[in-house]
User: Fold these one by one.
Assistant:
Number 1:
Amino acid sequence: MTHLLALPILIPLGTAILLLLLRFQPMARRILVGISSLLIVIVNISLLSTIRTGGIQSYQTGGWAAPYGIILVGDLFSGILLVLGCVIAICAVYYSFAYLKTDAQQALFHALFFFLWAGTNGSFLTGDIFNLFVMFEIVLMSIYALLTLLREKKQIEAGIKLISMGLLSSALFLVAVGGIYAFAGTLNMADLAVKVKPYAHHPLVSAVAMLFIGVFGLKAALMPMHFWLPDVHSSAPTPISAMLSGILIKVGVYAIIRVFCLIFVDLQGHFQIFILTLASITMFVGAMGALAQSDLKRVLAYSSVSQIGYIFMGVGFFSVAGLGAAIFYIISHGIIKASLFLAAGVLKKMRGSMEMSEHGNMMKISPLFALLFLIGVFSLGGIPPSSGFFMKFQLIKAGLDGAFYVPVAVALVVSLFTLFYLVQAWQKVCLFEQEKAPEKSLNLHLLGPMGVLAVLSLVLGFAAAPVIDLANAASQQLFSPELYINAVMGNQ
Amino acid sequence: MNSLIFKSITKMVSPILMIFSLYLLLRGHQLPGGGFIAGLMTSAGFVMIYLAYGCERFDFKHRSRVFYFMFSGGLALSFLTGLAGLFVGGYFLKSGVAHVEMPLIHEDWEFASAAVFDIGVYLVVCGVCMSLMTLLGEE
């Protein structure tokens, strides 16, 4: 089916609009949210399998051929991210029904959530650099509103930080797009790849490449630009925190990989040391930040910064194995981190606070919660047989193969810290005595999605081989940009 | 604000603004103009009325639900135009043009599906601007 590629954007967009119109019909909204979420999951999975068997797919919106129209392109990498996104999003949607108290909150939340979903799917699918900007804006707009939806004081503060980040990155993105358009006269990524290739070492091209690292690094919270992430990820409503850390920071990583594996292929060598250095510092700074926190969600948010460093390290190797490891890392980290954030939300609902000193005794109150939380902790810490072990193993193996000993050493040391701060958090929450009884009992509707993600990360560990193969195939495809270019330009 | 000069100027300017915005809206798919700029212009007219007269001429306060359905309906209209392109033209957002010989005046008029999309955008921009204005006015 030819329209399959447009559906991951169209279904959430249409659902969001219908949800706006059905604002005063709660029952109809619930049914619609359920049906469309399932539909998106089915569409995304069938899209991934189509790409797996049929190679890179492309779709011309409005019937305008490349390079003039906006082209949607689906390769294995975007397919994988689409499926990851919908797995996390469907858990977050289910969670949000129990998490948000009033119907008015739910009405706005779900409409905005589907806009966010459409934007995320769109940024993975678009083949046009300006359209990528538009999709980023859709994501940012929905996040601004979703972040401040519950109107807590902390959220307004984080909202200001997020808006300043968003405006700065949008402005820089426009400058970068303007620069590359002035140089090559096209915005289609495949066409750009062809036109920029002969002038790869022109100073303007390097400048634009650097700007893109800045813009996408800001979105992905690469080290000097990570200032906004801990506040935003820790104060957002929990289902949104899970989405933010699970899939949305990966949009920045995706964009850097896409740009450097397609348009600036010949500049990979120039930026390698730079990216690896930033990645190593990011890992270290994030882990140090996480050690110093007393708020569970802030620990997890700083841990996201640190883990983004790992992913960028895999990208920075610029080898098939390294990128494959980074892609597997993205999948695995997304699932684990979403599960951990949802666990933090369960706790917040019980005692109304995120300070770890006010929690405790969870082992006695709910051994099941303690176990599921422990799976997430061990998984992110890299204890076999969880998927977290394989993601770190693949990454470090790729690093040793490429003889990048310094980043690998940093990664190994930091992974010890990771295990330390996570196990410490688990101990404080589950083992330590707490005299105060929880205000509310454990909500099973909140525990469900968290458990599903935790078990999924365990399953991903036991069935790591096919997923690693898929990630490596995606990386192989990224390293042959001519496949992408042919898929876009070939069907004129 | 209670200024006679502003009130009298509003009486003259806001109708012109709104009529000119409709002109911009209807030519937007071929010539400079379009739904976004037209929507901003119309709401500029309403902003003037709101600032000059408050709610005495036009009840902004109790129309918030109208504004809400204006922008969500506009979004739906634009989206449906895109979908119509998918079902009729074969691609999402594919646009079509029809030439119709008008009776009585015997002129060839052009109707583009892009104009419907633009009307959707116009409604979204108007609705959002007016909702913002009434929300800020409430504070």
Note: The longest strand of chain A covers residues 57-60.
Number 2:
Amino acid sequence: MLHRLFPHPLLTVLLVLTWMLLVNQIKLGSLVMAMILGTAIPLLTAPYWPNRPIVKRIPAFAAYLLLVIWDIIIANIQVAKIILFMRAGDIKSAWIPVPIDLKTPEAITMLAGTITMTPGTVTADMSACGRVLLIHSLHAPDPDAIRDDIKARYEARLKRIFE
Amino acid sequence: MTGVEQIAEYVIAGLLVFGGIFAVIGSFGLLKLPQMMQRLHAPTKAATLGVGSALIASMIYFLVFEGKISWHELLITLFLFLTAPITATFIAKAQMHRTLTKDDVPPTGVGTEWATFDPNVTSVDPYLLNDRDPV
């Protein structure tokens, strides 16, 4: 019964939080509205999203977010340095295929998003079978090191969180 | 003006200048970098820190001068992190369709093509979803 009313409990929590942040004040009326939206939207969208993602380790997920935010700051400074101080001819861009072990679509999406936001890399494509990501690196003197770094730093953590 | 407000003003001004510099660098990257795929890196990274600093400055302003915590900046951050990677991937895919062939990118190494260059792709391999039970 409870399962049927809240098909995606995490989505419900996220929607309630988002609505409360949107109205920017804590009032009973807003909370009621948030609860209505948090119940209705997962119910309406459940048929299109039958398999809910399971976040197994929420503290690990929070730690992952902090790590990514830190890496985004570092990535910004690195890319800014490349743009400002390297001659255009010296920038060695490269395509790097990164084989992935993750199987949860949401985890792969998070990994792809993380790669785009962090050090000099953008996720461009995925293999038709979903087992390899194609990454474009702005400056990659050593493509293998970038691949290993992504696998060790982000994928291993996401695997622990989602699988 | 109290001491706290004065310090806050300096901090806010500093953050705005810092963010502005990064936004300019991001735009400068668009001009300087020669390849389309390289240009994609400038706005996805350098601009993020620019927007981030402006948002933190805004939060400090409302906290110190209006006496309330403003949560909208957190939402903007959330929406930015949701949309920036997706936009970047779309632009990358459009670029691959327009100017690249499958010989321009390295092979996948697992036997199948990249999804962009595989005319037979209609859906993702079912292997991805097999591990989870339907609700």
Note: Chain A touches chain B through 53 residues (CB under 8 Å).
